[in-house]
Design goal:
Blueprint (H helix, E strand, L loop, with lengths): L7 E5 L2 E4 L1 E5 L5 E7 L1 H18 L6 H4 L11 H8 L6 H11 L1 H6 L1 E3 L5 E3 L3 E3 L2 E3 L5 E10 L25 E10 L2 E2 L2 E3 L6 E2 L4 E2 L3 H20 L18 E6 L15 H15 L4 E6 L2 H13 L9
Antiparallel strand pairs: 1-2, 3-4, 4-8, 5-6, 7-12, 8-11, 9-10, 13-14, 15-16
Length: about 325
Amino acid sequence: MNLHNLNSEGTEGNQQQTRMVHVVNAGGNRQSVNAVSGDMFKRILVDHLIPLLAEAGQPLSPAAQQHSPDRIVAGYEPLQKLAADKKNNPDSAVMAMMVRDCAATDIAGALLTDNRAVGRKSVVEFGWVVGLPEFTRTEQYLHVKYAPEGRGSSTGRDDATQEAITSVAGRQALFHRPASSGIYALVCNLDLYRIGLNDITREYAVGAEARQARARALLQALAATLVKPAGAQRNTQNPHIVGCEGIVAVSRSSLPAPMLSPLDDAYQAEVEGCARALNKIQADGIWTQRFASTSEALDLLASLSAELDLPAAAR
């Protein structure tokens, strides 16, 4: 991914700062490198997810339809009334409504804090999307903003007359903006079996058909995130996405699918090795598939979406 500024940390004066994190390489050495937070990538995924859920006919709270990060807990009156009656409605009933009435809350989670605290944990988990230190660089570039009206007085006054500068030069605001290019490591976990699951009663609050529809929408949203990471500064620094490689691990047992970071060069072989080891515990429980390009990744996610078969009961 080249020449992007998907996740700025802030601005000092006229200089915008990008996100930088420290990672430790295989040799134990600490290195500083550009990264995009998992919060940013989850927001990107949810922005793709909401219209897909609507197209699939799944219910969305009014706030979720407006892409509010608070989703169902933002002014959904039936939930507020239910949560206010603590005597007759246990937390499990509140959780069931959060899962049943808003598919976006079911998948992306939300925390109710009015009258009581009930949290729906997200089905989707992203780590930091972090650059490989050897192949990632960030540089600052000078830009000029030209404002034909209103900018002149804010950029200085004439020394002799003390009047606001109104020349073309006086209306130009200089600023520095970062751009990062490199190879980035992404890890993502989807607990598809938890879609529709009431985390308190461990029973499904929605039917099998709705769970399948929501899970398909989630896989499709992940595919959309890979080809359109709609983060910050895309109006002038739309990322150049060159390619994508990796591995998908799927668990059909109670053992977790292995998820190792691409920060390690041997991550694909290690994931396959972990799968073989876990399959000795539960035969054929883990399945893995490598992909070497963006199109292969999308084709793989599309096949998983089409062939999806969720468990009938919670584990």
